[in-house]
């Protein structure tokens, strides 16, 4: 009725950097219109809460200007302990009836005061294991976190239209780029700076989600502690950079030491992922996981893929969020885009959302 649906920009407000992606529906499929990222000062976002909204607003405005973005409507996402995702089984009813009754139903599934959260429900279909029941996905997010996002985005002059969840944005990005085997179970893990978003897909349908409070910061902090350097120096060492300058007193640090620390944090991270998969295995019918797909900046840590494969015995690969997206080589530096691609997962997934979709 309204012709082609209008696009949105996908805005991923991560704790280490903000990413923006815009994808248009081109003649031959999806086309990349813009992608960019700007670093965010550490401590601006802690545990998902905005400690310095001004810094977040400035970074968003910077990015919009740098990437010359004209679209004002935004899809963004939250994650972490302020978000609850539950699959529940309810008596069959219409969507309207569900919307009405969920306020009463939800209380037993949400560990927060119902007045402190925004809720969303979606009917997934009939419950095969229970006649007359249907499966529903319930998502609740703390209002104060949502408000942080809405306020920062509005202050940056943009319209927050869609509020999603990181792990579902990753799922949308993955569906676009990879063929889904209906008989297979795959794990998507977005390993960021402060959080790992896990989403287990069974035949392409999300069956388990969990966020782990761990990520790239642990590598940096461990290097900082063990080698007695500043956080910035530790981050540079982690990224393979060298320390230099006249005030540099750390020339004795050899890459081997850094490598050892990185390897040991990789082991810890792999164990944490293992724990989540064990938890999934305990709550679901027997099920073999075929593959682990990684994204997020920390998926670039050398040896993480191998550490996960070694510990879990499951093939692991890094996702390319741009794999099935048309990219104009005259407009984008392809090599640079490939370098930063792991960090683009959430924003690309968000940019696929359209106004009014479910
Ligand atoms: N080449 C690299 N090698 C190792 N680590 C890297 C590399 N590039 C980026 N990282 C790390 O990836 C992390 C950033 O990843 P990402 O952008 O996915 O996180 P974020 O979205 O900002 O954080 P979060 O979602 O956890 O709040 C940082 O910890 C950064 O140090
Ligand atoms: Mg992130």
Structure, described:
This protein has about 350 residues and is of the alpha/beta class. Helices cover about 35% and strands about 30% of the residues. The protein has 3 domains: about 1-80 and about 145-180 and about 320-358, ATPase, nucleotide binding domain (Nucleotidyltransferase, domain 5); about 85-140, Dna Ligase, domain 1 (2-Layer Sandwich), CATH 3.30.1490.300; about 180-320, Nucleotidyltransferase, domain 5. A hairpin with a 6-residue loop joins strand 8 and strand 9. Helix 5 runs antiparallel to helix 7 (about 255-285) and helix 7 (about 255-285) crosses helix 8 (about 305-310). The radius of gyration is 21 Å and the shape is globular. The mean pLDDT is about 95. Adenosine-5'-triphosphate (ATP) binds near residues 217, 296 and 298.
Give a topology summary:
Blueprint: E1 9-13, E2 17-26, E3 29-39, E4 45-46, E5 49-50, H1 53-66, E6 73-78, E7 83-91, H2 95-106, E8 117-126, E9 133-142, H3 143-155, E10 159-165, H4 166-177, E11 185-191, E12 196-202, E13 205-212, H5 216-227, H6 231-238, H7 255-283, E14 289-295, H8 304-312, E15 316-318, H9 334-340, H10 345-351
Parallel strand pairs: 1-6, 6-10, 11-14, 14-15
Antiparallel strand pairs: 1-2, 2-3, 4-5, 7-9, 8-9, 11-12, 12-13
Helix pairs in contact: 1-3, 4-10, 5-6, 5-7, 7-8
Radius of gyration: 21 Å
CATH fold-level label of the largest domain: Nucleotidyltransferase, domain 5
CATH superfamily of the largest domain: ATPase, nucleotide binding domain
- Give the beta-strand count: 15
Give the overall shape: globular
pLDDT under 50 segments (min length 5)? none
The level 1 CATH classification of the largest domain is: Alpha Beta
Would you tell me the structural class of the helices and strands? alpha/beta
Bound ligands, named by name, code or SMILES: adenosine-5'-triphosphate, magnesium ion
Order of helices and strands: EEEEEHEEHEEHEHEEEHHHEHEHH
Domain module tally: 3
Number of helices in the DSSP assignment = 10
State which percent range the strand residues make up. 25-35%
| Mean pLDDT, all residues | 93
Q: Order of strands across the widest beta sheet?
A: 3-2-1-6-10
- Termini separation comes to 17 Å
Helix content: 25-40%
Instruction: Please state the second-level CATH architecture of the largest domain.
Output: 2-Layer Sandwich
């Amino acid at each position: 009725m309204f012709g082609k649906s209008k696009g949105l920009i996908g805005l991923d407000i991560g704790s280490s950097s903000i990413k923006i992606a815009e994808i248009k529906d081109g003649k031959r499929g999806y086309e990349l219109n813009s992608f960019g990222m700007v670093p965010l000062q550490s401590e601006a976002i802690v545990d998902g809460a905005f400690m310095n909204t001004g810094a977040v607003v400035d970074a968003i405005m910077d990015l919009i200007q740098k990437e010359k973005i004209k679209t004002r409507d935004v899809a963004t996402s939250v994650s972490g302990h302020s978000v609850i995702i539950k699959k529940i089984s309810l008596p069959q009813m219409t969507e309207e009836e569900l919307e009405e009754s969920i306020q009463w139903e939800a209380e037993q599934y949400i560990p927060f005061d119902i007045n402190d959260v925004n809720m969303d429900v979606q009917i997934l279909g009939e419950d095969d294991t229970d006649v007359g029941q249907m499966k529903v996905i319930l998502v609740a997010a703390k209002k104060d976190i949502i408000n942080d996002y809405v306020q920062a985005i509005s202050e940056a002059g943009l319209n927050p239209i869609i509020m999603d969840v990181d792990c579902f944005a990753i799922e949308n990005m993955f569906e676009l780029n990879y063929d889904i085997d209906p008989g297979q179970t795959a794990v998507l893990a977005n390993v960021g700076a402060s959080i790992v978003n896990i989403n287990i897909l069974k035949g392409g349908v999300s069956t388990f989600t969990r966020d782990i409070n761990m990520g790239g910061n642990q590598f940096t902090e461990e290097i900082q502690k063990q080698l007695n350097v500043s956080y910035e120096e530790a981050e540079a060492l982690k990224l393979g950079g060298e320390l230099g300058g006249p005030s540099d007193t750390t020339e004795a640090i050899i890459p081997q030491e850094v490598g050892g620390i990185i390897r040991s944090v990789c082991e810890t991270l792999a164990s944490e992922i293992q724990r989540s998969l064990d938890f999934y295995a305990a709550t679901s019918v027997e099920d073999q996981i075929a593959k682990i797909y990684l994204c997020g900046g920390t998926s670039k840590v050398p040896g993480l893929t191998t550490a996960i494969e070694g510990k879990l015995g499951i093939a692991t690969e890094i996702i390319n969020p741009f794999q099935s997206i048309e990219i104009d080589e005259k407009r984008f530096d392809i090599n640079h885009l490939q370098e930063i691609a792991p960090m683009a997962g959430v924003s690309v997934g968000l940019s696929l959302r359209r106004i009014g979709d479910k």
